[in-house]
Amino acid sequence: xxxxxxxxxxxxxxxxxxxxxxxxxxxxxxxxxxxxxxxxxxxxxxxxxxxxxxxxxxxxxxxxxxxxxxxxxxxxxxxxxxxxxxxxxxxxxxxxxxxxxxxxxxxxxxxxxxxxxxxxxxxxxxxxxxxxxxxxxxxxxxxxxxxxxxxxxxxx
Length: 156
Prior knowledge:
This protein has helices at residues 7-36, 45-69, 124-129; strands at residues 3-5, 71-73, 90-95, 101-107, 118-120, 137-142, 145-155. The protein has 156 residues and is of the alpha/beta class.
């Protein structure tokens, strides 16, 4: 299965891997070099820490490379009008119980940031609104109980 992403998410992840492959690798290499200068590496905590950090960094690089290799960037025309909620949509919701309004954009797994209004398209709320239309009511089962939402608007 492809990893769905927005263009912005793909660019951010590409920037992250570039940083890990350049700046972070150089920093870790310097840490290892400095730690080696302290003598016996078999009992050198700084050296062990730097080598562990190197391993974690290389693992993260491999993970991001694999994710990007299977990425599918979903694009859309911002002037296009849409009738149903799809990946990348911005959805304006009304909590029918509290009258609280929320606006979320449905994004890929690595892009979600609830504080900034971006939710993973695989999250329970996103799955509940996918394919729905403006005016549709949503029933969402949560640990705190059932919540009822209404879709107020859909845009890109």
